[in-house]
Amino acid sequence: MPAQNPQFSQISQFPQNPSLDRAHDKGTEAGESRIPPILRGKTYLDPLYDPAFRAFFSDEAALKDFLDALLRLPPGRRIERLSFTFADPVEFRIPGPKTVVFDIHAFTEDGRFLDIEMQRAKHSFLVDRMLLYSAFLAIKGKQAMESSPESLSLE
Predict the structure, then answer these.
(1) Of 95, 104, 133, 149, which has the maximum CB count within 10 A?
(2) Helix, strand, coil % in the chain, rounded to nearest 5
């Protein structure tokens, strides 16, 4: 896998959105801005939005280092390989149609699997949401297994 994803190499592909800048510049308390003074009035990519998140982390080595540091993974348990699933939405009916996009799948040196999501909204019932995503992953794995050449040869 190449180190740099060419799809995200041009930052100019992201249009400016003044309404997002104003929304983020409102601050958390009266008179307090969430944007550091050095960035105010500048054009920047907010990593809370998918296009910027993808642009920042399109370099696989940098993303591995970032995630290892963020998750404080010790040697022997660090991220070994990544799988990007930006373009692979999974659709389920629960009871109505629901589309889930898993952002990054990571596999660690000790064989663990991590589903890494970028969330910009606070969710009530976070544990329920995590259980639902786990169920989606299990169903997706079962579907992949059933369509594998090994499984099809058993029929």
Answers:
(1) 104
(2) 40, 15, 45
Residue 141 domain flag: yes
For residue 137, is it within any domain? yes
- Degrees, nearest 5: CA angle 107-134-153: 75
Tens-place pLDDT, residues 80-117: 998 876 555 555 555 666 555 557 888 999 989 887 77
Tell me which H or E stretch contains 56: helix 50-56
In this prediction, residue 154 carries a pLDDT of 78
DSSP code of residue 30: T
Cα separation, 50 vs 118, in Å, equals: 8
Residue range(s) defining the domain that contains residue 24 = 6-149
CA 30 to chain centre: 31
Task: Say if residues 128 and 120 touch (Cβ distance below 8 Å).
Answer: no
Per the DSSP assignment, residues forming a β-bridge with 106 are 82, 114
Beta bridge partners of 91: 99
Number of domains in the chain: 1
Model confidence over 52-90: pLDDT tens digits?
777 777 778 888 888 899 889 999 999 999 887 655 555
As a whole number of angstroms, the distance between CA 126 and CA 132 comes to 10
Residue 39 token pair: 């960035």
pTM of the model: 0.48
